[in-house]
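Morning F.,

Quick status update on the modeling queue. The single chain you submitted on Monday has been processed. Sequence for confirmation:
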Amino acid sequence: MVVAVVPLKNLSQAKSRLAPLLSDLERRNLVVAMFGDVLAALKQAKGLSEIFVVADGLGNRLDGVSLILEVENRGYDEAVAAALADPRVFGAEAMLVLPGDLPMVRPGDIEAFIGKFSCKESKIGKLVGPTVRIAPARDGDGTNALLLAPPGLMASQFGPGSFARHRAAAEALISTVEIVAPPGLAFDIDTPQDLLDFCARDGDTGTHDFLRRSGVVDRLTRAG
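Structure tokens below.
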């Protein structure tokens, strides 16, 4: 049983690094569009038993998703810790942590990342031994997906330089750390250059649709 955890930052605080290119409302709507693309891919992906979103808002329900409410939105690592406090997450066989800013992710990317655990099966059919799987961001600096089996194996360390931190922490625990990089998991939107690169790519995602309808693509193209 693999559960997915999606930490979601407070919409009023998200993507501040895009302020030179987008208004407050555009940044908020971009976050919502990317989050929608990620949830759509998760819902269609095979191999997940439940999807959890950790946030300090979003109302009381999301279709097909379980909401874990934070009293205060403090960051990705705190959101993952809040998820692990829920027995449905902590008691799962494995936990997939997937940020909500991966607009190009497809169900196949998630399925390829989950794959099969490297753990061997015992005589009674139970998986034994831990697994850590990491998907790096395209710049090789950040972490765009993290799979832990069991879920509480180690603390997450998201943020700049997180790929190296996650890898080092995992290697201190187990002998084999798996680096898996499906193409749709490599592209996140954090910086102005990320946004420019994304706008230059054709696509049919909700994020592409928002950026076209809002006039952002045309504005950036003219400026550029």
